[in-house]
Here is the input.
Amino acid sequence: MYSFFYRLLQNIVMKGSFNDDVIKIIKKNQIKQIIDIGCADSSLLEKIKDNFLYDGYDVNNLFIKRSKNKYKGKREYNFFNLGIDEINFEKYNPKDSIIILVGLFHHINDEKIKLFLDKTSKFKIYAIDAVKIHDQNMITKLLLSLDKGNYVRNVENYKKILINFEFVTVRNKYVRVPYDHIVSIKNIDYNFVKSIFD
Here is the structure.
């Protein structure tokens, strides 16, 4: 039931889909394996038309149960009730895999992010998170104060922790009210990603 209300709320407040942009990145990069960390109810799978391997991870077991039930019989789709610090990345080939983190970094502390980065240096990584910006709209500031993520950072702090990443600031694209995000990428063509948001 929680996942139903989560998705309902997402549909009400969202005007654009994170997943549409993620799919563009996946198609551009000869990906075979998608590693979706913080997958929630695995809504990315609704956009996938091609034959990819997909592993979804989330700390909320209700989401994992729902995804397992929804995609029962799809052997190429796997779901795990694990946190980012519990995932065994050695079982994946970095050359044909991509790690997707939609709205995850602003929920975890610097130490966990550093541990994750140490294990995934060769992977393609695409992350998008809430961000604090100096000239931010008052509505955005209010919404950020209500966000359940305890680690919404400003641009400079994301850059300090996400070493060797490239960044695109995305303003007012996804939510029906003023809201800002930061896209953080590693081992992915920056110009192509930037063109999605221009």
